[in-house]
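User: I'm new to structure prediction. If I give you an amino acid sequence, what do you actually give back? Let's try with this one:
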Amino acid sequence: MSVRAAWLLPTSQTREDTRLSPVGTFTPEAELRTRSGVVPGGTPFAATGAGSMSLQIGTGRAIVQGTAAQGAYPVTVDVPETVTFTDGDAQFGRYDAVIIRVYDQLFDQSGQNLARVEIVKGDPLATPVAPTLPAASLLLWLVTVPAGTSAGTGGISWSSALADRRQFTTAAGGITPAGGGTVYNGAYDGQYRDTGSGLERWNATARAWQAYPPTPTRPLMTRQVTQAPIGTTTSAYVDFTAAQWPRITFTVPPSGTVWVSVGGQVSNRNTTAATSWMTWRATGGYTEAAGSLTGLSAQGGRVIGTRRVYRSGLTPGASVTIIPGWNVSSIGTDTFISDGQLTVELVP
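Assistant: Good question. You get back a string of structure tokens that encode the predicted 3D arrangement of the chain. For your 348 residues, that looks like this:
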């Protein structure tokens, strides 16, 4: 037997069936439903071209959910299965689905009790769509069958025809691996999933997946690229262009709190009262003007240092941009703003 299903009549489930089938790998999806999916480990149900119109599906284990009353079936493919596609339509292309399907005569009209790997043939259309899947089935691969495709014309180009639709599942409390190419909601508050580039946590109150950890572990930072273009402008706060000094855009963390730091060299020795400022302003979901509350200053001399300020009460989730700027009261001897560094630290 190459495709095995546990807990399926007739009651001839062997000890080997039970050992191979992933009993206990259940991610809850609702009160009486389990998330269908492939059990991770190796490359389960890998697809390999086995001929011009044939595809081999490798070994693997999965959970296949039927109706709520039906429950979920642990399924194992312990020997690779080969499926064969029918020729393409003369005029239009189509999408065929490769699935694992469970037949259970207590809940369907099949008159049989078994699990198998099979193809659901799509309709040939000018703009093909994926076929509707039967109940108690799990999509593994979507295959493009172009118009006119047959063994006589070279068959299906497996390198470009396969779309991976294997979604994964784990035991309750486990982190669900990325896969399947589908959008789905979490089942319970605190559920985790891997996006392929990081972790997300399901927030049941917001009914949304949220990045985890919610706050970057490293500060956001940009450096001044060119000197402030000091010309005739005096006693006015001027933004650096994005090319002169890149801005920082961030999403306000749940705490609504950030630290913003600006540092570098500022100098103005034109007179003993002459000043230079390196500063910043905020725009977007939080606004704050450039000025003495955000800047680093020198008067009648040169200062090398950093100014770090604390801002709270921002709206969580809002997008804020920090724009570096400068100001000089007069222009003359040793007047410059240089070597700047802007940093935003998000407080958890």
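You can read the tokens as a compact description of the fold. Here is one thing that stands out. The helical segments are 15-20, 158-161.
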